[in-house]
């Protein structure tokens, strides 16, 4: 193995943890993710593409009702990206069926060769493996991700789906990395689906994603491609309309 390869850190030791310890860790870690998502979705900000510069989000585009924005996250060299869309013909209950890690990953790149739930920790808490093949775009080629997915309903009815990678040591203990793959990191990401007070069949969708694919890829290339990742809402909206009663907890 080439010692200069960025994939080398993922050959470090793995941690074996009990389901109870893993559950407690993920609940703790996902709390901050949920709060970040709720902050990003704050529907009190100006909804005309102007955004709110004071919260760190910079609006890049506002086209056909979709707002695209980015924000530098702490000391990370990659940006977080956000899309927001007011949907007029889909209820929150419909859209939440396709607001999940696996359906989003299918939209990122068509060469998703594996997407499965590898462990259910609770009714609303799962661990998922995503793996892309050799024919995927450079950002995803031979990448795999071990992520948690936590689904919560807030007191006001807002639906939140928090998704992020597990620490590499815990991920290695759950599922050892294949020799030819690169384990990327999905930082605090996910969905917020807000019901509108005056309309049962409309909702405000917020999707946030921050992806570090690892490997030798220029950061400007990753940030540019991340902008495209948040444009998947329209495809998922069509999927929700076509399958209003879809239950998405699938394997394989």
UniProtKB/TrEMBL annotation:
GO terms for molecular function: lipid binding. PANTHER family: PHOSPHATIDYLCHOLINE TRANSFER PROTEIN (PTHR19308), START DOMAIN-CONTAINING PROTEIN (PTHR19308:SF14). CDD domains: START. This is START domain-containing protein. Residues 53-223 form the START domain. GO terms for cellular component: cytoplasm. InterPro entries: START-like_dom_sf (IPR023393), START_lipid-bd_dom (IPR002913), START_lipid_transfer (IPR051213). Gene3D superfamilies: 3.30.530.20. It comes from the Eukaryota.
């Amino acid at each position: 193995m080439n010692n200069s390869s960025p994939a080398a850190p993922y050959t470090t030791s793995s941690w074996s943890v009990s389901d109870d310890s893993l559950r407690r860790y993920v609940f703790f870690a996902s709390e901050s993710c949920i709060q970040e998502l709720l902050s990003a979705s704050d529907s009190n900000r100006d909804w005309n593409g102007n955004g709110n510069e004071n919260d760190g989000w910079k609006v890049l585009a506002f086209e056909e009702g979709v707002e695209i924005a980015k924000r530098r996250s702490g000391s990370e060299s990659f940006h977080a990206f956000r899309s927001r869309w007011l949907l007029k013909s889909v209820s929150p209950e419909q859209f939440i069926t396709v607001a999940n890690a696996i359906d989003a990953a299918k939209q990122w790149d068509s060469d998703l060769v594996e997407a499965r739930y590898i462990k259910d920790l609770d009714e609303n808490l799962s661990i998922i493996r995503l793996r892309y093949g050799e024919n995927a775009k450079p950002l995803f080629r031979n990448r795999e991700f071990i992520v948690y997915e936590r689904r919560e309903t807030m007191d006001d009815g807002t639906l939140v789906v928090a998704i992020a990678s597990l620490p590499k040591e815990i991920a290695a203990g759950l599922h050892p990395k294949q020799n030819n793959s690169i384990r990327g990191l999905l930082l605090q990401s996910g969905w917020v689906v807000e019901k509108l007070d005056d309309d049962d069949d409309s909702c405000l969708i917020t999707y946030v994603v921050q992806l570090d694919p690892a490997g030798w890829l220029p950061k400007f290339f990753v940030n540019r491609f991340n902008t495209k990742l948040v444009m998947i809402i329209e495809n998922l909206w069509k999927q929700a309309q076509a399958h209003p009663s879809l239950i998405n907890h699938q394997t394989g």
